[in-house]
């Protein structure tokens, strides 16, 4: 159930001696790393993991991939030199079809990395590899949380207040009202586990904030959340510009809309960043001014750099699976590993299952009551 009372901003600058909630770890956890996935090769992945551990991350690391390639890379970093390595003969490419990997990719580093979570040898898995394949492999091996129709992918959004979680950003092109309700429940539990907020605020992404705006599915989802989940801090509809404003902690939408919004925001950030760079390097005076503003500019770069909070979490699966960007640099990989470790220390899958079951039961009961009242009204007429 709910707590007691109910991409893309700066990472902590100090050493990671606590999880992302600021809570010191109560047990040692293990994070499995698909070291062969991603665009930049295993050296960058290993560098990123070493960066996280050297900055204070308390977790065992289990690398999965070609042992001959990984062994010298791992030994080259004192912080992770004693990490375990699981040998894997092959790699999932970015062009591999997900179902092909499910059927015939059991010797890949991705499959074996997810299998460590299934077997209980690891508490979380991180991969920079093929998103579709990772989702398919995770679903096949770890299964969905009971009561959840479809998993969703999260994105962390920079806002004026800190971070906002947006989901779904690509797993589901369409979503009906029950699935949107489930996304809201999963997003709320995820934000609470990641950020330590007891009662996160939740909103449904819509074309307007008024109750009559939007299509039938989203209005039905809003009605279920208002009527059947009284413990959720549901704030109704939010618009696209409200995401960066930090109006709510969790923004819920279907994967098509969420992915378009995410890509649009990333494109706008790159455009503005390019303009700033062009302005500050256009003349000698501008360059001198930029030199004087260097500390502030570095802080700005950190806040908008996607590597600072990198990693989409697959919600709705019985296990912690974090998808790092395929083109992640070492900083981005470190961020994804930190997120995976933090979530592994605050498992929320049971909470999601219990809350989904309770909310769906209340929603169905309310629907039957309304239907009965409608029949009574018609009969009276």
Please, could you describe this protein's structure?
The chain has helices at 42-54, 67-75, 98-104, 109-119, 131-142, 177-195, 216-228, 240-245, 255-280, 284-292, 294-304, 330-344, 349-380, and strands at 29-34, 59-65, 84-87, 124-127, 152-159, 162-167, 201-205, 233-238, 250-252, 312-315, 320-323. Helix 1 crosses helix 12. The chain has two domains: 7-143 and 317-346, Isopropylmalate Dehydrogenase (3-Layer(aba) Sandwich); 156-308 and 348-381, Isopropylmalate Dehydrogenase. An eleven-stranded mixed sheet has the order 3-2-1-4-11-10-5-6-9-7-8, with helices on both faces. Helix 2 links the parallel strand 2 (59-65) and strand 3 (84-87). Mean pLDDT is 84; it is low at 1-23. It is an alpha/beta fold and 381 residues long. Helices cover 48% and strands 15% of the residues. It contains 13 helices and eleven strands.
Strand order of the largest sheet: 3-2-1-4-11-10-5-6-9-7-8
Instruction: Name the beta content range.
Output: 5-15%
Query: What's the CATH architecture of the largest domain?
Result: 3-Layer(aba) Sandwich
Q: Give the low-confidence spans.
A: 1-23
What's the alpha carbon Rg, rounded to whole Å?
Answer: 22 Å
Mean pLDDT level:
84
CATH superfamily of the largest domain: Isopropylmalate Dehydrogenase
CATH class of the largest domain: Alpha Beta
Question: How many domains is the backbone divided into?
Answer: 2
Distance between the termini: 42 Å
- How many runs of DSSP E, i.e. beta strands? 11
> How does the helix and strand content classify structurally?
alpha/beta
Residues in helix, %: 40-55%
Which term fits the overall shape? globular
Counted by DSSP, the helix tally is 13
The SSE order reads: EHEHEHHEHEEHEHEHEHHHEEHH
What is the CATH topology classification name of the largest domain? Isopropylmalate Dehydrogenase
* Major sheet description: 11 strands, mixed
């Amino acid at each position: 159930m709910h707590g007691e009372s109910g991409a893309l901003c700066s990472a902590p600058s100090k050493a990671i001696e606590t999880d992302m909630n600021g809570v010191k770890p109560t047990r040692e956890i293990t994070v499995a790393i698909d070291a062969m996935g991603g665009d930049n090769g295993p050296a960058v992945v290993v560098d990123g993991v070493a960066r996280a551990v050297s900055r204070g991350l308390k977790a065992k690391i289990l690398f999965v991939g070609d042992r001959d390639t990984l062994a010298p890379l791992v030994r080259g970093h004192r912080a992770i030199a004693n990490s375990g390595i699981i040998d894997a003969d092959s790699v999932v490419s970015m062009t591999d079809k997900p179902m092909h990997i499910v059927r015939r990719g059991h010797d890949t580093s991705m499959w074996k990395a997810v299998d460590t979570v299934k077997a209980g040898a690891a508490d979380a898995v991180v991969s920079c590899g093929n998103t579709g394949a990772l989702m398919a492999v995770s679903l096949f091996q770890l299964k969905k949380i009971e009561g959840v129709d479809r998993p969703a992918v999260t994105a962390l959004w920079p806002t004026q207040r800190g971070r906002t979680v947006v989901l779904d950003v690509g797993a589901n092109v369409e979503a009906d009202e029950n699935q949107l309700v489930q996304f809201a429940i999963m997003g709320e539990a995820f934000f609470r586990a990641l950020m330590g907020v007891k009662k996160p605020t939740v909103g449904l992404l819509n074309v307007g904030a008024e109750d009559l705006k939007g299509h039938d599915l989203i209005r039905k989802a809003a009605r279920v959340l208002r009527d059947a989940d009284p413990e959720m801090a549901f704030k109704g509809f939010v618009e696209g510009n409200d995401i960066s404003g930090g109006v709510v902690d969790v923004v819920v939408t279907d994967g098509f809309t969420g992915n378009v919004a995410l890509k649009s925001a990333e494109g706008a950030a790159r455009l503005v960043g390019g303009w700033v760079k062009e302005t500050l390097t256009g003349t000698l005076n501008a360059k001198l001014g930029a030199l004087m503003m260097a500390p502030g500019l570095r802080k700005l770069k950190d806040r908008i750099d996607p590597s600072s909070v990198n990693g989409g979490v697959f919600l709705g699966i019985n296990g912690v699976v974090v998808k790092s960007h395929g083109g992640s640099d070492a900083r981005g990989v470190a961020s994804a590993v930190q997120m995976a470790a933090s979530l592994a220390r605050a498992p929320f899958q049971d909470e999601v299952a219990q809350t989904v079951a309770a909310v769906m039961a209340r929603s169905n009961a309310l629907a039957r009551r309304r239907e009965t009242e409608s029949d009574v009204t018609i009969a009276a007429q």
